[in-house]
């Protein structure tokens, strides 16, 4: 039958291979939740990655949310996504990573019901897509060493974390400028509008693809000011948590692109809305990730494969984790993501995490 029979959720932590530093702080561990949605015949899985400094969610809060909302979803038909999304969205403000976990699990269940990989159900625009790999804030020497390691693995695009110190940021870029690789920059809200514009003007001698989220997430005027004074495209990340945010920043002419993350927007359904809003306005999208395992990274990859307006991909967080609790899912070869052939997400957990 097509009804939701049971929902389970549990916490799990995964340590990083090494501390990952961005302008907002240093990260050492992924504190996530696993959600399983059961029908009478099948099971879908989803993941929530709580990032309090960005989404306001916590691991314990996310778990409580899933347990509280589950009775409202039991016995509903899992194909009725509009009904389910309405119930989930109305149940609480925020809680976007927990909502994402539920939404991903439901889409996994739908893919399995139709015996199809999820990206084909969503749109099936392409069968592979290139991703960058991210290098956190570090010394120029270490940034170059990590860049060379990425190049040796076939990656052709790097995303470099900046926003801590303008002069040190420039030295990091100088260290890799001669490596023949595309460079993206992500400030994670680290600059003021004026310091961002001054910094971007000093980037003229480099070939920079775009600069991501240079100022605090709330600073609509600042993003507009930077966009109007930059020859390099400006991508909004932390500023965009919902389709409404996307519409606001696009209407204000404050962005050249939008970085969608399932954990920020509440899952695949809201992400699709953002993709279509941006495409209508001629604004390209990027798909990124928080500290997620291959479960939700694979979900994001299905989204990227499905829609032509997702032009940029930054799906690499699972590569920074000590343990991979999954089997199946996406494969990355030479910096290119290939989807699984199995139905739904095409991924399972290795053990009872």
Search tags:
24% strand; 353 residues; eight-stranded parallel β-sheet; Enolase-like, domain 1; alpha/beta; three-stranded antiparallel β-sheet; 2 domains
Task: Please tell me about this protein's structure.
This protein has 13 helices and 16 strands. The protein has 353 residues and is an alpha/beta fold. The protein has 2 domains: 6-115, Enolase-like, domain 1 (2-Layer Sandwich); 120-349, Enolase-like C-terminal domain (TIM Barrel). The strands form 4 sheets. It has an 8-stranded parallel β-sheet. It has a 3-stranded antiparallel β-sheet with strand order 1-2-3. It has a 3-stranded antiparallel β-sheet with strand order 4-15-14, covered by helices on one side. It is globular, with a radius of gyration of 20 Å. It starts with 5 loop residues before the first strand and ends with a strand. The model has no long low-confidence stretch (mean pLDDT 96).
